[in-house]
Amino acid sequence: MKIALDVMGTDYGPSELVLGAVMAVQEYGCDVVLVGDESTIQDLLKKYGVENNPHLSIKHASQVIDMHEHPAIAVKTKKDASIVVATELLRNKECDALVSSGSTGAAVASALFHLGRIKGVGRPAIATPIPSLTGTTVLLDSGAKVDAKPDNMVQSAIMGSIYSELMIGVKNPRVGLLNIGEEETKGNELALATYPLLQREKLINFIGNVEGRDINKGTVDVVVCDGFVGNVVLKFAEGLAKAILTMVKAAIMNGGFFAKLGGLLITPALRKLRKTLDPEAYGGALLLGVRAPFFICHGSSKARAIKSAIGVAVHGVESDIVAHITDAIANQTRIDEVVGHMK
Amino acid sequence: MKIALDVMGTDYGPSELVLGAVMAVQEYGCDVVLVGDESTIQDLLKKYGVENNPHLSIKHASQVIDMHEHPAIAVKTKKDASIVVATELLRNKECDALVSSGSTGAAVASALFHLGRIKGVGRPAIATPIPSLTGTTVLLDSGAKVDAKPDNMVQSAIMGSIYSELMIGVKNPRVGLLNIGEEETKGNELALATYPLLQREKLINFIGNVEGRDINKGTVDVVVCDGFVGNVVLKFAEGLAKAILTMVKAAIMNGGFFAKLGGLLITPALRKLRKTLDPEAYGGALLLGVRAPFFICHGSSKARAIKSAIGVAVHGVESDIVAHITDAIANQTRIDEVVGHMK
Fold first, then answer.
1. Interface test with A, best of B266, B267, B271 (most A CBs within 10 A)
2. 3-state secondary structure chain B
């Protein structure tokens, strides 16, 4: 199995990404194609002493798309950008999956223009796993489509349900619509229009509306929302988790001698927790609805996160999630069936 | 100064609310009118030994609106509901402010129908203070208007800015638009249309787009979003804070002997932090844009939270926030001025 890794355009530069790839080929036995500036990558492979490792290869790309460029324009005009070259490897089946940690917008645009959607999918959605008190909840869409339509939300629910089943191992995952109240009559226009469609979709186990407080509770497996809400919530979670751990530390430091001693004693346990809550530990959100497995990592991913992302990509290829989504979309409840059920 | 307290329709029943009022009159020296079932309230006043306290009075209301009723229909048909009776006291200037902890929807509907908006305000917004690493951030709208228009967002920004200044004491508060990226070109239709209006509004110190991760960072004082996003974010914060503190506890308990010992030593510090993060400690979100100070507490508020809410209401009356908002709305940048500035 071969995974393409776009090593350019990230916060920490190519060295963290190449190191992550080195760790991944050791751990998962897969091949990785490093996409980006050839001489930079060669130097890094030498630095890590793996220039002759047959599992690591290089695909040169002379351009980079940075975080501040307009995604759609950049992926159309920079034909030799690393994300575009990596996407073309995927389209031409020269690799089985792609892992990117550059600009999310550019990654989504590249997937849309150079890889293409699964037949019948209106818009792809980004599925992000987040820790709950009992396991892992999938939140989607976390940023691919900001002004979603009810149809997009239903497809997110179907794709998220398959993700939860195949990637997380949940049987018959509980799908909830993120809303401001549990009652069917609550919500904005989008939520109100989406609810009856989810209720009638036979491919999912829809449990109704869920609220913000349910996301981490472990009472729902797949949480559906539009890309604006999902992105705000995810970034807020990141900030809040950091803020609370900082507050825990400050509370201990200001709590007197015994609290400080106690703080020292719990340091290893807290460090472990910080890792659990760290977005870096997750290894990649999956862009669902495109024709091949396409993973998007946090822009500030370090080697360990990249290694995990490649591991998740291997799992995505093995579980054949794209084929499952293709089948499901072909079989989703059609609008005429829905209308037939309406009074 | 007299505060009306609707004691009905909450999760814990009237006893917690009456106790909160007893604590508040002692602490703040204000008067409280307890609105609800007279005999129930009388029994509680006797129970707490304050039946002759001249600062506490009763206004009988024979009906209650519960959490699951349709807000607008309920406040129109149940003319003797406690929230409606309390709102009428406020409208008739028989009290200076109102504190409610029943259904938020019913409270907003009652304020709209029975108290009315400040002249020029399109829709009221709920301003909720949340703790940041350096102080307090105000998030609004946190649930009054789910499908907001750009005009509503601008008024939220103006009203939130006044709130931050008068209620929290921030000078020239930094106002941010909650979005999925910092760049002006990022966002959904609402955010894109709102950005230029905020930029041209002379009454506020607009610092541009902020992301979810900025809310708790202390780098912005007023965060503007629509009522759907705000409500989801606030409820998510509540759930996540609880989940993280539970995870901290679990990490300590599973961390071996020294971690457990350390956990014992930090317990007082953590208990204090839990109180800081507890929505109960805040004492009430303020419904901005209506003709008198109208506070809405969390439905699960206990006595201490109700006491704080009454304290916040006293502060709201003293600072004359409604008059400041009325002036500001009369002076906000008019659309024709905005058009004049556009190229």
1. B266
2. CEEEEECCCCCCCHHHHHHHHHHHHHHHCCEEEEEECHHHHHHHHHHCCCCCCCCEEEEECCECCCCCCCHHHHHHHCCCEHHHHHHHHHHCCCCCEEEECCCHHHHHHHHHHHHCECCCCCCCEEEEEEECCCCEEEEECCCCCCCCCHHHHHHHHHHHHHHHHHHHCCCCCEEEEECCCCCCCCCCHHHHHHHHHHHHCCCCEEEEEECHHHCCCCCCCEEECCHHHHHHHHHHHHHHHHHHHHHHHHHHHCCHHHHHHHHHHHHHHHHHHHHHHCHHHCCCEEEECECCCEEECCCCCCHHHHHHHHHHHHHHHHHCHHHHHHHHHHHCCCHHHHHHHCC
